[in-house]
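Retro notes - structure team

What went well: the batch runner handled both jobs without manual restarts.
What didn't: labels got mixed up in the shared folder, which is why I'm recording both outputs here explicitly, each with its sequence directly above its tokens.

Job 1
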Amino acid sequence: MGLDVGSVNVKLSLVDERQQVILRDAERIISTTGAAVDSLLARLDRRFTLEEVGNAGVTGGGRAAVSSSRGWPEFSGSLATAAGLLHDHPDARTIVQIGGQTSTVMSLADGLKKPWKMVSNPLCAAGTGRFLEQQAYRLDISLEDFANLALECQESPPG
């Protein structure tokens, strides 16, 4: 099981011994990170016990609080993202990751075999998921419709 503890959401992914995803879930952080993790684990417990899950690891900006309270190891979020994406899309060359407070672009060369270039924006909401959510709200459209409009764009993005 992997937990990614972001600034807005905690995400959970559970894979089986064949490395097939069998469960994905997310919980928005409303009060505390711990409360969001507890809520996710309560939903997980309806299907699997933590003993059945076996191993767990934590990534993300808030990982230290979760890993220290649960004793789970911490992992690099960028490495976890690249490894997970390359599992399903081995020919991927660029990963754009947009979170609640940061965005990152990873340029890959030969999967995980060679070092890759990584560029992140400074900690602020501009150009990130939270900023995009705010703009969709201001336009009074759903985030899904907002994303579909972006996909329809044929012009070069602003520089």
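Job 2
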Amino acid sequence: MLGTFGVVAARQAFPRAKGAALKALEIDDSLSDAHAVLGFVHLAHDWDLPRAEAELCRAIELGPHMPGGHYSYSHLWLAKGRYREAIEAIERAIDLDPLSLPNNYHLGSVYYFAHEYDAAIAQLHKATELDPSFVIAHTLLAVVYALKGLTHEAIAEAEKARDLSPGVWGRITLGRVNAIIGNHAVAREVLAEVKQSSKSPDLSRAAYCAIVHALLGERDQAFEWLDRAFAEREPTLVYLNQFPDFHCLHEDPRFQDLLRGMGLAA
């Protein structure tokens, strides 16, 4: 999770997670959660969907009552663009662990990717009610508000995220929101600040810088930052084909080249 949420660089966190999961499975191959962790690593870091699916099926088979397998399987369905299945999987995880912040946030994110923005807003509000300081719920809520044309609410949520987060979470969201609503000068100013900040792996920075450039119509810069994200194996990229922000890049041959490089091309 540290690698997923940008607290530790993905290249450091995910190999350690894989090593720990494999060691656990050497001790006891029937551990559902260890298979779930290994499956998530295969998905988000290795970008190996078939191996991820095999491990996650094993996790659910061994522990259908364990939320971790269902949570990770929802991410797999999301990476495939299978939104209904992703929602069903994460709803099962929430049934098993209703107070989990990642579970509740992830359901909101699936609704966002599925363009079900009203449902996303309602679900993300549930996440912020569970913990008002849960910054990533505020960041996505700001983006969904912007996509709905609710400018005041979008800026307010982005500013809240910026105030809650000591890193780049809130700032990059402020740039993203301003790009969506057409305040391009502000978006560029915020983006410049993020790029000049420390070298922390915060928020899978490269992928989200690419998002802002894409929204600004700056394709070359977007691909430059996507290439950086690829080099860092940022977990965000497994959902590359699903992000609404990148729809404007889909017809560019470089986009398909990137998907092929990750093994995600059709």
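One thing worth noting from job 2: The chain has 14 helices and no strands.
We'll revisit the folder naming next retro.
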